[in-house]
């Protein structure tokens, strides 16, 4: 088994510091250096590609990977196909333990996209929160105006469509996740749906979380966005049914 990274030639380990415990030590009177030393542990950080058996640190692989499919060390093709689906298999050993024959192509594709589009990180996080049904995280992200977060000013997070995921919008993601709560939030913030159509609970929740609809003049109604198959969120809801029975045709998900 290799014990060094083929890119940087350093040991396949990572020093991890428990910041929460370190802060607690500092509050109790210990020095920051002493707290850090006491709470630092070494964990594995190894990615073994199954195609060529080259080993990398995760960050080294991410930094060197391009979507050409070749190993950054030996140039051998690292992708394979399973039932017509492209994948990149590896043994990943990190703080969470060993995962064998793990397909990391989705992660590599995501990171490669973000290297080319660093200002889209907030958009990617937004879509993930929509898929998780996490209303509080969505609102926290939208309210974050940190000028150092790398976002491109003209990227509309609410209306972002996923080029890596069938061009789905946040509303599509909410439909797929079966999250009415996220759907109501997105309709409130990024559509022209008549406010009389909203249940009182939606306004109460929005007020408690400090959000409300802004002027939509000149903005695209999120209900009009279509995925790569040309489907609106309403058409998708009609297909998946579930919690969406009664919504298609009501005007909530369509213009």
TrEMBL record:
Annotated Low complexity bias: 29-38
Acidic residues composition bias: residue spans: 19-28
Source superkingdom: Eukaryota
Chain residue ranges for the region called Disordered: 19-40
Protein name: Uncharacterized protein
Organism field: Aulographum hederae CBS 113979
Taxonomy of the source species: Eukaryota, Fungi, Dikarya, Ascomycota, Pezizomycotina
